[in-house]
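Loading example: each entry is read as two labelled lines plus one structure line.
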Amino acid sequence: MSLALVLEQLLNGVQFGLMLFLMSAGLTLVFGVMGLINLAHGSLYMIGAFLCAAVAGATGSFWIGLVAGLAAAAAAGALIEIIVIRRLYDRDHLDQVLATFALILILSEGVRMIFGPFPLYLNVPDALRGTVSLGIVDYSLYRLALIGFGVAVAVGLWVLIAKTRLGIRIRAGESDREMIAALGVNIRALYTIVFALGAALAGLAGALVGAIQSVQVGMGEPVLILAFVVIVIGGIGSIKGAMVGALLVGVIDTMGRFLLPRIFATFLDTSQAMGVGAALASMLIYLLMALVLIFRPKGLFPAHG
Amino acid sequence: MDSARKEWLLNAVMAGALFAVPLWALMANEPFIITLATRIAILAIAAVGLNIALGLGGMVSFGHALYLGLGGYVAGIAAHHAFNGTPVFAGLPGTNQMLIIWGVAMVVSGALAAIVGALSLRTSGIFFIMITLAFAQMGFFFTLSWPAYGGEDGLPIFVRNQFPGLNTARPWHLFVIAYGVLILALAAFALLRAARFGAALMAIRQNPDRAAAIGISPFGIRLVAFILSGMITGLAGAMMADLTRFVSPAMMAWTMSGELIVIIILGGVGRLFGPVAGAAILVGFEVFFGGLTEHWKLWLGLVLLGVVLFARGGLIGLIAGRGQHG
């Protein structure tokens, strides 16, 4: 096990974590501002990936596809918010879980009807092909670009929330929605904007990840569950918590899968070590989440006090 | 007719229909329909279990597939070792006796529910939903990557387990077993709801602080309800494994947990026969629309969305009106 391999896995973990952050940021914003659990967030990720793959396939440009995926996810998000989600804000969590579970069924089948049952493939753009040397390790340029993208979006999101008028409204909406409505902010429009913003981030993540995975129906659900793990660990409603949680989950999951089988191999025979290591590694982040909830029931960075 | 009487009548009709339709299928030699009715009965048992936690206790467990899968694996592993003649561990033999398997499945599921419940009930609201999901995901990934019992491929049950006095290979006999257990589970639910324990549990759901103020400990009551809930769902899992003669990690998938909640909502939360109505709707929907279009899940999603947005009492609520337990 060389240092280069460990470094490569670590970078993979960071890259995975940053993509999870894009997913989790929207989820945590929507929960923080509107108090809504949105299971259909994974479907928006899927929509972003499908539109990106389809448009990139038709135009030959990954970048046009990326914009299309992002725009489609944002539009779908706004539409869903206006038609369905809006009716769920004053309902209990059970109704929200069910209605958005229903949305997953509808959106997944809808995408399957439009794009067919077979996975689409999205190629890495030419400019980002190949590897780049980072001293001791040659690393995939595209994955490195994903890290850059993730950091840039995180910074952009921070500026948006901390420095702009929209950000002030979002933060005000988190702490007291009646009050800002009374102050003359159009709260309905604000909710639609926040939901569409979260959807756009999810769509962006889907489109970016689509180039290193196959784009298929159901791709959103595993990421959705991970994003929930992230925001629960980080503290629901907290963007900072989402960032810390996403990096923790990304790195621990990737390193666990890489290291645990090797650690077990030091005292078990290889096939057994693979089995035990893989089984434990896949449970690791859920274990982490359970531990966080047991010792810090509101997550690492509780958003409200 | 008042709504309680209407609901009672509706329950009787459903109990009768669930028995009469497969009986007709037996006469008409339609084993497929008998098997469908068996599936409805077993799914309903699983949902009766969840209904204790969700309907009576207001605990939205998004991880009840864990107990369903665990019960399934108890049946699968017992049958696997009985078939091979190998011990499960340390000389303990496998078995092909349903009654023993059910007992073990309920004890094991109850024990796991005790651990999960004790940890999860420290949280509430969305955190409770997520932590129960996390525990179920742990089980899912564990069974997925643990190679001893088939891992990803699942574990087949080559010969269906035995029940004294009946031939479980025959669809009708298996249905009668499942129907009998369903009636017992419903009776247990009704007794629980009518007992002091049920009253305390519902009081805690409505207002935990007030319940605590009159001397009811929310944690203890909720935990016991959660354990009972897991035990019944685990029992259903063992029966489900015998029906399909196959266990796989998919039984623990989060979509399965979602389906169990959907069953309860479609039928009516906290209603005695809600799980039966919901399971019948879900299976009926799958068979009927699944035959018409491959995109039946789209229609299921639309119906579910409609029920959540506009018909909050589920099917029983629509027909019998809002009950006192609403």
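The mean pLDDT of chain A is 89.
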